């Protein structure tokens, strides 16, 4: 006999993991697009100093994404990885 409370908790955990994975994909994609724009701007004559604030944002997004990914991995049962 299934336990409704336990089943609901398992579903909440699965949804949270899915949301977290989606968030990491979104953050990584956004960071990659901004990085691409920075790279193109550098090729077209912008200076690293001019783009430093954007590069800092990209670096911070990537660090946050790595932390989120690590947290998701650390809290995902091995059989679900």
Describe this structure in words.
- It is a single chain.
- The chain has helices at 4-43, 48-74.
- With 81 residues, it is mostly helical.
- The protein has a domain at 22-74.
- The protein is rod-shaped.
- The model has no long low-confidence stretch (mean pLDDT 85).
Q: SS-based structural class?
A: mainly alpha
Which range does the strand content fall in?
Answer: under 5%
Overall mean pLDDT = 85
| Unreliably modeled segments | none
Outline of the structure:
This protein is mostly helical and 81 residues long. The chain contains two helices and no strands.
Secondary-structure blueprint of this entry?
Elements: H1 4-43, H2 48-74
What are the defining features of this structure?
83% helix; 81 residues; rod-shaped
């Amino acid at each position: 006999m299934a336990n409704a409370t336990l089943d609901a908790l398992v579903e909440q955990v699965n949804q949270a993991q899915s949301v977290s994975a989606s968030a990491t994909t979104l953050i990584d994609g956004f960071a990659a697009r901004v990085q691409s724009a920075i790279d193109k701007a550098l090729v077209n004559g912008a200076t690293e100093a001019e783009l430093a604030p954007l590069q800092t944002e990209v670096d911070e997004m990537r660090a946050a994404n790595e932390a989120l990914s690590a947290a998701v991995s650390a809290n995902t049962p091995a059989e679900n990885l």
